[in-house]
Amino acid sequence: MTENAQPDRHGSGPGTAGPGRPPTFTSWLRDRSDEELAALLSARPDLARPVPADIGALAARATTRNTVLRALEGLDSFTLQVLEGVVALGDDRLSEPVGVTPDELVAALTPAAADADRLREAVPPVLAGLRRSALIWPDRDRLRPVQVLRDLLDAPARLGPPVRVLLAALPHGRVKRLADELVPDSTEPAPVEALARLLADPRRLDDLLSRVGEQAHRLLDGMTWGPPHGTVADARRDVGVADAGSSVEELLARALLLPSGDDTLTLPREVALHLRSGRLFREVGVEPPAFAGTERDGDAVTRFAAGQAFTVLRAIEELLESWSAEPAAVLRNGGLGVRDLRRAARVMDTDDATAALYVEIAHVAGLLGTDDRVEGEWLPTREYDLWRESPPERRWLRLAQAWLDTDRVPALSGSKDPGGRMRNVLGPGLVRPAAPQARRDLLGELATADPGYAPTPVSLSARLAWRRPRRRSQLYTELVAVAEAEAAALGLTGRDALADHVRPLLEGDPEGAAALLSVHLPRPLDHVLVQGDLTAIAPGPLVTELARELSLIAEVESTGGATVYRFTEDSVRRALDAGRGIADITTLLERHSRTPLPQALRYLISDVGRRHGRLRAGSASAYLRCDEPALLDEVIGDRRTETLGLVRLAPTVVASAVNRAALVEGLRRSGYHPVPEGGDGTMRLSRPEVRRAEPVEVPPEPLAATPPVERLRDTVRAVRAGDEAATAVRRPVSLPEDGPPGSRAMAVSTALARVAETGGRVWIGYTDTDGRQVSRIIAPSSIDGGFVIAHDATRNAVQRFAIHRITAVAELEEDDRTETP
Question: Could you tell me which of 152, 265, 282 has the C-alpha nearest to residue 225?
Fold first, then answer.
């Protein structure tokens, strides 16, 4: 019987399928409690996407190749050894009864008597975890692996196939000759069974082994602990004991080696286990290898990481503010050009690789997007404005969570794809599905060390190899190395150790992570130190409003532990152009400066303010208007303005051959301070245009993410209800196949109305809006306008069903439900 067969619900214990019926995986799964099913879906979240229709569908999905492969990737070395032991010893092709007991498993896993007590304590929790993940299941008092594991772990514990499998691939005549020669007195009806019984009997197997020479024993010794296959010419040769002329032929003639290909010989599993004295592994690693590294102060590590986190926030904020005024272009492939990346690196005061990381994280966090122009530009999104107003620890958490969940690997930018095309930041070709898991594996392993402990790369690699043996590959190793560098650059680690604020984040507690990080992040300041050299020093991060005003009035000259702003004519004019007055600028600086304003700065502000707006440019093509004719004389006589084509129309008006924008820009380059004016003569002052892109789509929930508890409960409830609908005993209600139009709908309505009057439940077959045929158990409450309003047990909610979509109706036997054939 297959694992997914669905016997009835009756039974008295786990894995039972009813009196006299053999147990099945589906029946065992059906007998699990709601809490156990929720634990299964928590351990293997992919089983609930989408929600299975019933227990049978859940069982089928839990035993498919891809889902089991995904579950295997999450096992550590010891758990994988235990599972391989269950597969090797519980193979139903070995012997009867099927499966393996826990005691047999412990005995086979124990390499030495001294380890027996330790393994007896370590194995039961591992078996419980494997049962919880539905990779093994109990058949009465024995354990069985799910069937697909025989294919996925085809050489468990480096053992070859059972002898029955190897003999089944040989011609019947050859198998019969082997049986006649080796077990002539056998009463087994089939020669395969006779030979299998022979090799399963330790005493008779010892007798066979004693009859081969020393060279043959050395050959067997080389294959005992694997690999179980060897290459030889003409492996399928048919030889008898009397004809054997070499050590290989001696073993072939006694079925101690059997062909599995034209040039491949294989050691049967029974023979290998006998040669190993029943042991599965030479060594069993119950615990991961010990860390080697350096003890550091935990608080110092966290402070170091928090400082880097603050650097990340400031760098991304500066970049997005810069791109708000001068956006970067979108390449035809949707990425960011090398020149724009280098410009971004200069703005953020970092190298190109780190700049690529910050740009990618800003994008996946929803802070950076493209506009809707034909020739697109990279711009901050409206989400960026909300993000900037958040506390710094919240801003960092959003970036860190985006990095943990994204499958994009910024470090691949600059490399070439298989087609020889360059991979660009924000472009295609940077996706690696294994990247999120590699990051979580790395941080999770660092979290197992004591706070502040910095393991060496070698010991960390050894721990990861033990923790995730099925993930060992060149790609995974590279992803872990990249994740290590990125974690340091983003402030998740400091001085090669995990920061304290990352531990709650890995445990799904962002509030705790924010609370720990906030203690170490510098608090926003509301003051600066204005210097006599026309600079202002911000000794830390500034409150948002002050930072914006200073970036308007002054230029950022340098960043680091403190930010240096420099006041220039252009920066002061920019503030005046945005509508700030001389008094506004001076008052702001006096209010927020901890030092007196130097006289030179007051002179600069008043001088630029005095000259600002004396010239006004309008549209003629363009004109200049000024109440001071002498100033117009100066402008016309200035050799730098010759290209503007200025012509005097009146003592206070000059016309220009260029448009207003070009006129204003040309005069500003020449050291004047014109302002544009409208047709009514009023000045047009405005801040630089603030452009925003549309919000980036929120990425889907990572496949490995554990669903919330409430969602797990809802999923289990839906699966139970679907299973009830699929397995309930039903008495079909007769519905007319032919007849006047509407007669079938009338019969359905009548049947449902009758159930609604009694307050009972009814089974219905239903065609949903996607055209799928589904089963539902509903409690009808009212029928109106071609619809029935009913409580749907599958969704645990009141739903409306279209009567014309109901394909069948059946009454339920509420007290005696059993599965339908």
Answer: 282
Which tens digit of pLDDT belongs to each residue from 799-817? 888 888 888 888 877 554 4
Q: What is the DSSP letter of 781?
A: E
In 3D space, the residue among 452, 467, 468, 459 whose CA is nearest the CA of residue 503 turns out to be 452
**Given this model, what pLDDT does residue 446 score?**
95
Q: In which region does residue 612 sit, left (phi positive, over 0), alpha (psi from -120 to 50) or beta (all else)?
A: beta
Gap between the Cα atoms of 365 and 492, Å rounded: 16
How far apart are the C-alpha atoms of 585 and 568, rounded to whole Å? 13
* Contacts of the segment 211-219: beta carbons below 8 A, 24+ positions apart: 211/241, 211/250, 211/254, 212/247, 212/250, 212/251, 212/254, 212/256, 213/247, 213/250, 215/247, 216/247, 216/248, 216/250, 216/251, 216/256, 219/247, 219/248, 219/251
State the distance between the two ends of the chain, measured CA to CA, in whole angstroms. Answer: 15
Q: Global pTM?
A: 0.74
Kindly report, residue by residue over 360-404, the tens digit of the pLDDT.
Answer: 999 999 999 987 665 688 999 989 988 988 889 999 999 999 999
Can you tell me the distance from the alpha carbon of 778 to that of 780, in angstroms, rounded to the nearest whole number? 6
Hey, what's the torsion of the CAs at 194, 200, 203, 206, to 10 degrees?
Answer: 100
Please state, in angstroms and rounded to a whole number, the distance separating the CA atoms of residues 119 and 108: 11
Give the pLDDT band of residue 8 (cuts 50, 70, 90): very low
| Residue type for position 590 | E
Locus of tokens 């039961």: 124
**What count of other Cβ atoms lies within 10 Å of the Cβ of residue 453?**
18
Alpha carbons within 13 A on the beta-carbon side of 482: 26
Q: Is the peptide bond before 596 cis (omega within 30 degrees of 0)?
A: no
Q: Is 330 left (phi over 0), alpha (psi -120 to 50) or beta?
A: beta
Asked whether residue 626 carries a pLDDT value surpassing 80, the answer given is yes
Neighbours of 225 (CB within 10 A): 16
Take residue 554 and report the two structure tokens written for it: 């002054």
Contact 136, 70 (CB under 8 A): no
Q: Which residues contact 69 (CB under 8 A, 6 or more apart)?
A: 152
Among candidates 763, 788, 761, 785, which has minimal Cα distance to 774? Answer: 763
Structure tokens at 513: 């992570």
Question: Residue 506, Cβ neighbours under 10 Å: how many?
Answer: 16
CB 243 within 8 A of CB 253: yes
Per-residue pLDDT tens over the stretch 400-447: 999 999 999 999 998 988 888 899 999 999 999 999 999 999 999 999
Tokens 């549309």 correspond to: 694
Residue that the structure tokens 């020479």 belong to: 213
What are the percentages of helix, strand and coil residues in the chain, rounded to 5? 45, 15, 40
Using DSSP, state whether 447 is helix, strand or coil.
Answer: helix
- pLDDT tens by residue, 31-44: 899 899 999 999 99
Find, among 243, 587, 342, the residue nearest to 252 by Cα. Answer: 243
pLDDT above 90 as % of the chain: 36
Tokens of 749: 């309505």
**49 three-class SS:** coil
Tracing tokens 């904020």 back to the chain, one arrives at: 317
| AA letter at 367 | L
